Amino acid sequence: MTHPARRRWFTALATAAAAMTAGVLLAPPASATAPNIPHKSTAQAELNALTVAGEGSMSGYSREAFPHWNAVSGNCNVREEVLKRDGIDVRVGSDCYPDSGRWYSPYDGVTVYSAADMDIDHVVPLAEAWRSGARNWSASKRENFANDLSYPQLRASSASSNRSKGDDDPTRWKPVSSYHCTYSKMWIRSKYHWGLTLQPAEKSALQSMLNTC
Fold first, then answer.
1. Which domain holds residue 133?
2. Which first-to-last residue range defines the signal peptide (predicted)?
3. Residue 2 falls within a domain, yes or no?
4. Is the residue at 5 inside a domain?
5. Across the chain, where does the E strand assignment appear?
6. How many domains does the chain have?
7. Count of CB atoms within 10 A of residue 179's CB?
8. pTM for the whole thing?
């Protein structure tokens, strides 16, 4: 008979292996993240300062109004820069595209082992920005917003979680609960920095998420 302690060890090992195969880590690894995420007190002040308004019109919207994935340096574009920044042990080829590495997606708590299965999320979606004030921006400002590497507007996430989110605000879509604090601070900072408005229900959802910090 198998000794109970050994049996438990084998069970734990099999569970970990199955989780890795499924793309799920039992504990999130340390990884880089978006820059300029504020402390809770700063995020609270910025949330309080944001203008509350009704949802604007989507008339005239298209993703082409927000040119994105601009060249950054050498052969790298913004998408590739975020993949390098948010990944773990990422190695890139001469074209700057990751040849290997892994990415922890905090939106759904999974680890992905292929860059092709990762998306770069606009934390405040382009359509959400449009109906929150970006429809009145210049073309160059919309382009800067869509390629913002200086503030927490871009985050690598699994393709499945990014596409589940779509263009929803936090009243309709949230990441896993363990990421509510960080996600709310990223959303608030981006809207505050870019001077976007928010709706009453959106502010309430953000406040609830921020309270988990």
1. 18-210
2. 1-32
3. no
4. no
5. 71-73, 76-77, 88-92, 98-105, 110-112, 118-122, 154-158
6. 1
7. 19
8. 0.85
